[in-house]
Design a protein that fits this description.
Layout (H helix, E strand, L loop, with lengths): L1 H32 L6 H8 L3 H5 L5 H21 L9 H16 L8 H9 L5 H26 L7 H20 L6 H15 L3
Helix pairs in contact: 1-2, 1-4, 4-5, 4-7, 5-8, 5-9, 6-7, 7-8, 8-9
Length: about 200
């Protein structure tokens, strides 16, 4: 019995590791080719697997694409949100988020820059589950920013419309990603950081 249970655990662990390898490779391919450029043949070849073996754990290609979106969002969370988790809510947390956000843009874990920015542009005019998933990712991030802006306002540290500031901060980050990836401007993340902090400074009483 103990041997059988041990084999079952090993099999489950191996299946999970395989799933994680597939998703990680899918994230990298999608960063370069886009989510709709995620093709099973090249992905399977890069992993030394069959196409059926690659798609099997996810049911179909769309299931794999959705897992890729979730993984990319988790990577963003780990790089931008988690480092500021011990910072006080409100203005201190907002400043820490900006710093981590711009560091993430400068040293992106993805071959083609910010995955969320690229996927948002790819999916914004293509209704369906992938667009819905990315809509949820972006909405939660914007809501998180807005929450800390309103906390800072309640503490008397900021004034102005919170939605305006959310749009300004996101706009600066998206512009920096374009400048880095398309224009080859490696100082763009530092520029975006200055812009974001300057906007916040102007909104302080």
């Amino acid at each position: 019995m103990f041997v059988k249970l041990g084999c079952m655990r090993k099999s489950a662990d191996e299946a999970q590791q395989t799933r994680e390898r597939i998703v990680a490779a899918g994230v990298m391919q999608s960063s370069v080719e886009g989510l709709f450029g995620l093709t099973l043949g090249p992905l399977a070849e890069s992993l030394g697997m069959s196409k059926a073996g690659v798609v099997g754990p996810f049911g179909n290609r769309e299931g794999l694409q959705l897992e890729v979106v979730r993984q990319a969002a988790d990577m963003f969370t780990a790089a931008v949100i988690e480092p500021s988790a011990t910072t006080a809510d409100g203005l201190p947390r907002l400043r820490a988020l900006i710093d981590a956000w711009c560091e993430y843009l400068e040293a992106s874990p993805f071959p083609n820059g910010c995955f969320v920015t690229a996927a948002s542009c790819e999916l914004d005019g293509r209704p369906g589950p992938l667009r819905d998933a990315m809509h949820d990712v972006v909405s939660r991030w914007r809501g998180f920013l807005r929450e800390h802006i309103t906390i800072a306002q309640a503490a008397g540290d900021l004034r102005g419309d919170p939605d305006d500031l959310v749009s300004i901060l996101n706009g600066a980050a998206m512009s920096a990603n374009q400048e880095i990836q398309l224009l080859g401007d490696h100082a763009a993340a530092k520029h975006a950081r200055r812009i974001m902090h300057a906007c916040i400074a102007q909104l302080q009483p």
